[in-house]
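During the no-cost extension, the postdoctoral fellow (Dr. R.K.) reprocessed legacy sequence entries with the updated structure-token encoder. One reprocessed record is reproduced below for audit purposes.
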Amino acid sequence: MAEHKTKRCGITVAKADKKEFERVWDFVHAMEALFDGRGVFDGDWRDWPDDDKDKKMMRKIVHEIDCDEDDELVVLEFVKRKFRWANYTGSFGRILFDCETLIENCCDPKLDYLEFKPSIMYAERNALEKIEKIIARGEKRGRSAEKILLDIKKRIKEAKED
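Re-encoded structure tokens follow.
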């Protein structure tokens, strides 16, 4: 049976760091609290605890733009500031692109939930099966364990170079 080499494909993408995720989650949580009541605080932002950082920001905006607390400009300015901070250096795009890249390259496209592609999920098993075949072939040919091991190491080295 002829051996075939697998072509190595790669992609390099800037990885979103922990701070980016924290900023984006901070934005998402604030928007949930403001617009759909799924946040920690239900109801109007004025009812949030006085020590809440987002309420403090809202109060600061009220004073900066000299408007009434009921003014929609307060909420709009709050959303703009939270978004700018969350998207600092393009965090939203980087996170979405990273997730999309990982899903497209690592997840089974046949499934509607996240699970590794079979080639990744069973990589260890597949590698072990190939090694077992190499050993069996080497033993049939009367090769020593050392020569078989050298052949395996050679194939690993070649695979890394591809």
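The first helix runs from residue 18 to 35. The radius of gyration is 28 Å. The remaining legacy entries will be reprocessed before the final report is submitted.
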